[in-house]
Design brief:
490 residues; alpha/beta; 2 domains; 8-stranded parallel beta sheet; 21% strand
């Protein structure tokens, strides 16, 4: 080798090391030791379309190398025969406590977000989880909790008094708007809204909140005002209201759990979202892969007329504490007591249609707490999609499913919070939030009868480069989760 050639190769090696660059198919000429290497895994990246065996080098919580050649690491995870995917991003998880995070880590989730109900105090919400979280976390500023604060509603999680059943006064509207704006200034990721739970909120109140969200480039994550089959209070009417608000204000709109809003009419609601997109509106939606929903029995959703509106009756409700199906007598008893129920109202064909649609994201809508018969979606959503609907039902292909639970949720939030440009991807410079699973074995284990069971087949989960799941087991004493938060403003 000539001196000139040797100098040229040395310059390339120095530049590659400095910039942290590795070609997909060519190992750089320098020898570098990474903090951690994921070796021999089948890397699937929905953004680039990479779908091949690669070695992944991780340093400082970031992906620094993707190579066909072996990489040297201080530690190595052998992923031969396993899929290496971006960590799953859950846009809709109410369970934001350590035990919920453990279940979600077992389900491949690396970023858990409470964007529907949200919080009324953004600073306090983030402070409570800083340096204490297994996975990444984030929240919206929520119309529900802000309205409850302003209207002195006694409900704990959802409103049961004035915030649910009374129209706000002009002064209260000023305070609600002030609370929403302050939350966005304090870095809330989005505006959360559950109009079904605040049914007395006027259309003017809702449109004004969309206008505030638009000012801050924040998406509005909405549980529609109406759900079900009875005109004029169908899910179709509910989605018309918020698409109109988005069109009038320019706010991005995200419709939560479209299946429990549309029920058997879910395909029509999905068509509404697609139609809005085709005409230039920023509208997205999500679903969970189950035939039942869940909420609080004392909420406004079960105000008189609920049976006709939802097309169900007492026997379709399962009490979270005991697992019993309700009767007229137990319905009244438990409604006064307050607590969670599972609602069997979603046809299987509606759930399958939403899961299979490439436009519909996956989000769990996991429930706070761990009641003995809580809905299984907070424990098994993502593994159920990959195991049941991809492998067993072949309702969609694996790359499409991964896109719906990684890249698409990141893209939903990245205009407001730029950190999401480095999430939901396997590429150089991306955050090392990574889920490694066996595509032949991954499956949900949580059921309606026994919901508190970990998913199976997910072998490794990394959060900011730190393993939180190793060989299918939780790693004790690590808290690598970081806040997912928008920039603060005045």
């Amino acid at each position: 080798m000539s001196k000139k050639t040797w100098l040229a190769l040395s310059a390339i090696a120095i530049l590659t090391t400095t910039l942290g660059l590795k070609a997909h198919n060519v190992a750089a000429p320098d020898v570098h030791t990474y903090d951690l290497v994921i070796a021999n895994g089948h890397v699937m990246d929905p953004e680039s379309g990479l779908d091949a065996v690669r070695n992944v080098g991780i340093t400082g919580g970031k992906i620094r190398a993707l190579s066909t050649e072996p990489l040297q690491g201080q530690s190595t995870l052998d992923a031969k025969g396993l899929v290496v995917a971006p960590g799953f991003i859950d846009l809709h998880e109410h369970g934001q406590a350590p035990r919920n995070y453990q279940f979600q880590a077992h389900d491949g989730v690396t970023t858990s977000l409470e964007l529907e109900v949200g919080t009324g105090d953004v600073d306090a919400w983030y402070a409570a989880r800083e340096n204490k979280s297994l996975i990444n976390f984030g929240a919206s500023i929520g119309h529900i909790p802000v309205r409850m604060q302003v209207m002195h509603d006694a409900g704990d999680f959802l409103p049961t008094g004035d915030a649910a059943h009374r129209e706000a006064t002009p002064q209260e509207l000023i305070e609600i708007n002030k609370g929403i704006r302050h939350g966005l200034q304090r870095g809330a990721l989005a505006v959360g809204m559950g109009i079904n739970y605040t049914a007395a909120a006027s259309h003017d109140e809702i449109v004004e909140l969309f206008r505030i969200a638009a000012e801050h480039r924040a998406s509005v994550h909405v549980h529609l005002r109406h759900a079900g089959l009875k005109e004029p209070t169908t899910g179709l009417v509910g989605i018309e209201e918020v698409i109109a608000a988005a069109a009038a204000t320019g706010a991005p709109l995200h419709v939560v759990h479209i299946t429990s809003m549309g029920l058997k009419n879910t395909p029509q609601l999905i068509a509404m979202v697609k139609g809005a997109q085709s005409r230039g509106l920023d509208v997205t939606t999500e679903c969970y892969p189950y035939v039942a929903g869940s909420t609080r029995l004392e909420s406004a959703i079960f105000d008189p007329g609920w049976q006709e509106r939802q097309g169900i009756t007492f026997k379709d409700l399962q009490w979270n504490t005991t697992g019993e199906r309700l009767t007229a007598e137990t319905f009244e008893k438990f409604r006064k007591q307050g607590g969670g129920v599972v609602i069997f109202s979603i046809p299987e064909e509606a759930a399958r249609a939403a899961v299979a649609d490439s436009m519909v994201m996956i989000a769990s809508d996991g429930i706070p707490g761990v009641d003995p018969h809580v809905h299984p979606r907070g424990q098994g959503t993502f593994s159920r999609v990959l195991g049941h609907y991809v492998r067993e039902e072949k309702a969609l292909d694996l790359m499409t499913a991964l896109r719906k639970m990684t890249l698409m949720p990141a893209q939903r939030l990245q205009n407001r919070a730029s950190m999401f440009k480095d999430k939901g991807r396997i590429r150089i410079g991306a955050d090392a939030d990574i889920t490694v699973f066996d595509p032949r074995r991954i499956i949900d284990k949580a059921t309606f009868e026994k919901p508190l069971q970990y998913s199976d087949g997910i072998q490794f989960v990394l959060v900011n480069g730190t393993p939180v799941l190793n060989n299918g087991q939780l790693v004790e004493g690590v808290f690598p989760g970081r806040p997912a938060r928008a920039p603060l403003s005045q």
